[in-house]
Amino acid sequence: MAKRGAAPVAAVIALAVLLATLATARPGDPTLYPAKPDTTVAIFLLDNGFHTDLVLPRAAVLADGGPISAALRETTADPWVMVGWGDARFYEDQSAWQSRIFDGARALLGGRPTVTHLEGVYDQPDRVWRTGVRRIVVSHAGLAALLKRIDRSFRPGPGGAPVADPAPHAHDESYFQSGEDFSLLHLCNHWTAEALNAAGLPVTPVLDTVPAGLALDLWLRAGD
Q1: Three-class DSSP category at 55
Q2: What is the structure's pLDDT at 80?
Q3: Are 52 and 212 a contacting pair, CB within 8 Å?
């Protein structure tokens, strides 16, 4: 009896998830993606199992001229830059993740400071990492739109310059204060998907909650 009673509940939950998936799916921009052969530039998606970053060519970031360009100049001279976003306290803590489970759960409730993270990468990402790297080909216009989306993640200081966070960090790495909210409905992987959506790729936020879902989303909807 208990099993038969649980089946309708499971069906309702599955239907609700399906409807939420369909309702929140965002279309791509066919004028930006797929890129025409003579307008292509490669970027990379980096997946460590629970968090995703974008790895972008330095020259393109500097050409943006916005907050990310200023942040990059303060951070590294490497030819590639890894860019990510998340809850400041959890993101900047370098202790073992097992000791931070409860803090991570608290971050899901929202209301805490957030940061945008930049870190230099000394070589093309697919030559630096053997796994967890996905090459994505976008248009130059799409990359410019992606950078503008990232620009909005920086909290402007006096004169509009990005505000560096005082957290300790390694060489060629910086954190900058962000004005975006982090919560269960807007996680780091959602932020990555939003940046890719700005570049013209279709995305599905419900799938994009976890890196494996974002990878599946890109395969199913973007063919990348």
Answers
A1: strand
A2: 98
A3: no
The pTM score is 0.90
What sections of the chain are H helices per DSSP?
A: 2-24, 58-64, 67-75, 88-92, 101-107, 125-128, 140-151, 188-198, 211-217
Judge contact between 176 and 118, C-beta under 8 A: yes
Q: Are 84 and 54 in contact (CB under 8 A)?
A: yes
Residue numbers in the chain where pLDDT is lower than 70: 1-23, 97-99
Distance CA 108, CA 134 (A): 27
Instruction: Give the phi and the psi of residue 10 in degrees, each rounded to 5.
Output: -60, -40
How big is the chain, counted in residues? 224
HSE, side-chain direction, 13 A CA sphere, residue 195? 28
- For the chain, helix, strand, coil in percent to 5 are 45, 20, 30
